[in-house]
Protein 1
Amino acid sequence: MSFDINLTLESIPRMLGGVGITLQLLVVSGLLGLGLAIILLLMRLSKKPYLDWPAQVYIYVMRGTPILVQIFIIYYGLPQFDWIRSSVFWPILREPMGCAILALSLNTGAYVSEILRGGVLAVDQGLSEAGAALGMSKRHVFIYVKTPIAIRIALPAYSNDVISLQKSTALASTITIADMMGIARNIVAETYAPYEVFVSLAIIYIIFSTGIQKAFGLIEWRLGRYERRNG
Amino acid sequence: MEALSGWWDDYYWGSVVVLKVFVASLFLMVLFGLIGAAAKLSNSPVAQKLAGAYTVVFRGTPEILVILLLYFGSAITLTAIAQVFDPDIKFVDIPPFWAGTFAIAFIVGSYATETFRGAFMGVKPGSIEAARALGMSNFQTFVYIRIPEMWRIALPPFGNHMLSLVKDTALISIIGLNETLFVAKQAITVTGKPFTMYIFVGLIYLAFSTFITMAVMALEAFGKRTTEGAR
């Protein structure tokens, strides 16, 4: 057994060919998941049982089951029903990419809504009272007072979730998608050289997640500038 | 539902495997987390650097990649070693159970490192000083003051780590561990009912998650018995 440096140098460009798909999975399901998270958050904050309960059950189920099982249910499971094959969603559900994005968005939405809720609940109660004293409506207080502060509070936890999502995109390789992980598995199947291929892929992923962390660090720094000015 | 009949015992044994992986990886995860936290809190710059590298690597690499690398990497190394002694040996591997258990314990252990580090730092300096004033030794302070205070701080995130362990068990089916998701794949080839089978796997994992969540809630209540309502 020896470490074949040439194989490493050959396989890195091949794996980077999947960067587009990995990024597409990350960005599209990240944005869709964020939209879903905001809907779930508003349902939970509404305090109306018929909105709050479904959101709670949804979050509980999504956070209590493995993402791999969710991907399999959507990709392998749904075609069991004929009515799904004849529905308008079939063009999306037929494609592995559509299924992966759907599963990742549904999953991350549940996690992110809890993060956002933590942010909203952590906003100082005095600020919304101050808003009310200034004659702002509840909606105005929520949009102009609570939201900007809640975003700052939730951002560090949110950046961790984006990194989790990026790691989860690798599971798309289990439903035949040729993202970086899928390409790496193909190379290993051809060459049977797990060290050369997987270690270099791990380094690529670590660079990615470090980059995400740094980017969010910059946003946090920028959003926190008002605190430094007085401090 | 009738598709499930005949598979109950397979799912039962699959669930037993999930439970075994959970217990073994929980033990290892706590061990890695404590070693990592001890290294990060130590005065040795080398230990700090090593622990820092450990958390960066395992928090940035997808779980599936770590599992595949550990399993196929160890197999190729062991086969090479075995062939030195007996050239006729074709393939030696670590059982998927242990390769997978170590992989998820390494990953979640890197998160636990940060949790434990934060919890040990959250122990009030006043408590330590009080212990010193009472003439307690370092060891006594650790056992009677630091540990009881730190586990209460660490418990909520630690509960999430336990949920991650259980959910990551599903990923070990990729390298052939016969847990419930693996059972479902076999059942599908016979029954042709992927939705039913994967939903059932989801329910099994949801039951595990529910049990862990309730256990953590009970422990949290137990931890608060001396601090709340005692004024």
Note: Chain B has eight helices and no strands.
Protein 2
Amino acid sequence: MALSDNAIVGFAETPIVPRSEVDVWELGAQILDHLLERTGFAKDEIDGLILSSSQTGAGNNFWSQTTADQLALELNFCQTVDIGGSSPVGSVARTCAAIDAGLCETVLCLFADTAVAENNGRPRSYGAEFTNPFGYLGATNAFGMLSCYYDHRFGLDLRALGKLAVTQREHALLNQYACEKLRKPITVDDYLNSRMINDPIRLLDCVMPCDGASGVLVTSRKRAEQRGLTKCAIPLGYGERTNLSAGAAMVDPTVTGHRIAGEKAFRQAGLKQSDIGSFHPYDDFIIAIMMQLEMLGFCKHGHGAAYIHETDFLFSGDLPLNTGGGQISAGQCGLAGGGTNLVEGVRQLFGEGGKRQVKNSGTALVTGIGGIPYGRNWNTSTVLILTSNG
Amino acid sequence: MSQLNDLLAIDRPVPPIRSFSVPFWEATREKRLLLQYDKVVGAYQFYPRPTSIHTGRRTNLEWREVSGKGAVFSFTIVRRARPPFRDHEPYVVAMVTLDEQVNVMSNIIRCSEAELRVGLRVKPFWHPLPDGRHLLLFEPDK
């Protein structure tokens, strides 16, 4: 058994909203309902549940069990993946491993968070002792310092970053599930002139916290074939790295775990960068997209801006980028937000992109970013390369 | 350019103490900076941890006193904060590389925006906490 013996046979998502009017479990039920409808699987055939991190679910020691109970799922495998924003992509890999190991056969991967409406998160970290007393506000400050260092090392080309913001916004205009408030065109000047949050991070560098859910149904490729499910996304390569250089007191924060995770995923997939049909990087901040382009080998370390200027990232372009708008232009569903990038990649492979369908629906690369360590970049980097069936 | 605030008058969140960070916090009562040092590999680490980040061996660790002098590694000027820091913006959150090659997060105070840059030499400014401990802040080392 191998990673590629598994298949994503369905995807689903809810509209992304500034604050959910319904309970997180109702969003979960909507995802389950859509997946059953679209794949033809019966509820009783689902024997595995893997949940992403969720700030609504946080603090509940029984998050996966209680969710399974609400959805009335009888399971052979039930767990939560708690690697933050990396957990949706990480869930797919863990699902495949569980199916390969014979623990279960058909798995609901559910990414649901209503962090705006109900945030139960209480992270236990270095923060209370060594960052909060200084007025450090978490991710935006972390990315401010990271951007400052990048600027010092390579120079920060704000117009290049602005181009990424504008491209993703163009895509959100074509995505009916993107948060309505964000579905307005922007220009590079809008990006440059947006309010400074903490230098050099501007408002349009940041995700807007939102509520919503997404999910995929995963089964063995063999079973998918038996069921006649020809539209599938097959995972070809996966890499994950948590706490890059954990044993070093000083690191270059412009180097991230995506370099190692990406090398592994590309090697396992037997593909190279130019084979990628669409690119769906986790986007909590605009600069994270540029850093991933560098670390994943689309361009050299420190050459992201030049590459951005010469590349067309529209759905119709050279390297379609977050064709649903990404989280920055569709809204971030808390710690489940990585599902937004993942589901869009799967949609493109299914050929269901509609007005934003990419030309090369053969392969997609999806990533995750999770957790903010002390003065570095991020805790976990994940890379998943998918191909369409056949 | 705006005036950067030093945040000396606000009630900051009081940091908890973990079982393995007691020596660090106790030393701040006397305005002394102790770092964990792995004597086998000859390297410091920060923030204080329950084991050596270099070897994973607890017995390799000892506490060593250092000057606290260093240089700004990176910084951000916070213009939008939450209480109790709200309405005290802008202020600086920075990583400082101590001369012992560890990065420490803190505020840079008594520093103008024009003066603030990566590489700026800084020295400790010990800010009193209500319980007698001190927070390690930094100011330009002129």
Note: The interface with chain B takes residues 126, 128-137, 141, 144-149, 152, 195-201, 246-250, 253, 374-375 of chain A (CB under 8 Å).
